[in-house]
């Protein structure tokens, strides 16, 4: 065959196609080289080279296949579109390389399927180039395809076992009939519509409704078989194909409207009929409700995409295997993780060009059948790509189909190459006069363009805007996996004693915690269960993500696949005091906090029951099922009724307003108050007399006079007090902390009375209470709470961290002095109180102890709360902690 315009057109297509194929081969060689170097790069040791190399088998196979196809198509159709073959082979080669990288066993198979696909094209080139074999025998081909699909109802199987059984197979070779069915359905529709248009144009000039009956019948049988198989994704593609081909045939937007209504109606019906549809729709609408359950696959998919960021983690250096079925339905997320936004946009661009060139080939056809066939096959590829790419990016519900040319699957690849062969033949332009523009094709092209731009926007959303949030999620296993290949920074206490470190060799690093008593602070770092505590909040520093510039970190990740060596973090915690507090709390449920109020530095954050981070993976199930919640940090996350610890704060607010002198006479000192059917009494046994004053009520922790004082002040001062002492402010110390809880209740006298004795809607954490109690006695020297003291930066050594967070305002000396008089413990500069509370509607007793030890240059504040224990027990623990503070210890 030779075109009428001479050899120039063929030579031009030949040279352009050859150049593009060469560039494609170079790209695949670079990818193959990257995969070969990946293992050595991960562990930064050439002894691990070459690691994997069997994927390189693809390169000569691909080169031979490309050369044969290029040579044959140059002979058969010298004027073909020079972009179709290079794009298809680039997509296929890229896909097979990724399959080798993800599942080597499937990589071998896909390489063989690629070889067979090349042979299929060569065989199709030998058939009638006018495709009469496809047009004239449409009923035969369609009957054969439907028969094969019907056989899956009886002999269907699943290569992985279980459901759905969409394949026919034997001896380890499987074939999915729905793939060729799509090819033959398009051929049937194109042939039938072309014939009816030719006949009807000779008479009335338009299609009659009866003309659609055979077409709808064949399409309906196909859909029915797919519905029985629950292959609803392919069914949606078939509906879209029918709608677009009818629109192309009659150029009526009503066809698209009716099809849209049918699609919505069918989708709603399928939602109520099929569990799998319900699961996928719910996972699409809100995957974050069950990120470890039904939505696991889509959540891990978007995390994988986000992990790729702009330029990706590098070939072989990502972790796309965390996404189930990453070599089939979810191969797009695997590509984006390792090639980034740039790679994802490149793949979308390839599909956009491929579809555009296919529609261009359709628009050049004078023969109606050829036009419909080229357009239908092109649209089938485009719709399939849009559905699956949109699904893995959560732009659309998942449909469970392959990505043409790219995903693993012999049936899919053979069908895609058959489509490619037809498009190559139909793109031959030699001797074909320019055809008038077809409005329907222009509209379809515009629709596809909008779809590609929309997918590009969604890709940018996940890889750029949402990437920091998604990659920081605790259910992103890549964070902990990095720690196996690069030494994570140490966590040390204020004296440099190691609390957490990495032990082992690159590729097998594990986290070690020498002091399990520090678990409420350090938390844990686990590949399986994520992170908590400082391991989570300082993850970026510990992993080295904040070391160097963004460009340096990006280049480092591209070269070795993980961030640089982590930086060490120093805490304000004193591990000796921490261990003592944890031991004192052992066997009880409660928490203790020790801080130096002038500096805000936290020396103890203890919570019991607790756990040993070194045994986390062995005991995880027991820890999760344990009703005492050992993984819960009661010191920062626990919210408790403050009870009669509120007394000094109520007094401080009243004293600041000049309305509550210590010698204010009070009545009913020993009278108990009702709390949800339980009684709240004085914390200490008082001596009731006619001369009792407010000072007695404060000293003995008696609730009734405190209620009376609050009622005299009113609601507004009480709310001001709660805000001023930080009870409504979060504790910002790089740990998971409970959100402040002050429910807006009706401001009645009854609710105010309960609020004043800490039995209302206000609930506080021990850390909040320590900050507030320190504010009573710290004078003008006070600072926000601090847990992270310094970071060991390479070029600067230990760099002290700025203190951030809420600072309790200073109190006037006229307020502090009376409090020191009331709460003086009879020992040098020790002010303390013990108080009780009743926990919520259960009426569980809470024992509180608040102590402040004033030494020359330090004010040590301890808070202890015990669940189900008396205040005097909490007092014993609190005094033990204060007594253990060395006299020479200072911030």
Descriptive notes:
By secondary structure, the chain is an alpha+beta fold. Helices cover 53% and strands 10% of the residues. The strands form 6 sheets. It has a 6-stranded mixed beta sheet, with no helix packed on it. A hairpin with a 2-residue loop joins strand 18 and strand 19. The chain is elongated. The relative contact order is 0.07.
Keywords summarizing the entry:
891 residues; alpha+beta; 6-stranded mixed sheet; 5-stranded antiparallel sheet; disordered N terminus
Helix content: 40-55%
Per DSSP E runs of 2 or more residues, the count of β-strands stands at 19
- What order do the strands of the largest sheet run in, or round the barrel if closed? 5-4-3-8-15-16
- The total of helices stands at 32
The backbone outline, from C-alpha atoms, is elongated
Structural class: alpha+beta
Query: Which residues sit in consecutive blocks of at least 5 with pLDDT less than 50?
Result: 1-7
Strand residue content: 5-15%
What characterizes the major β-sheet?
6 strands, mixed
Average pLDDT, rounded to a whole number, is 85
End-to-end separation in angstroms reads 90 Å
Radius of gyration: 36 Å
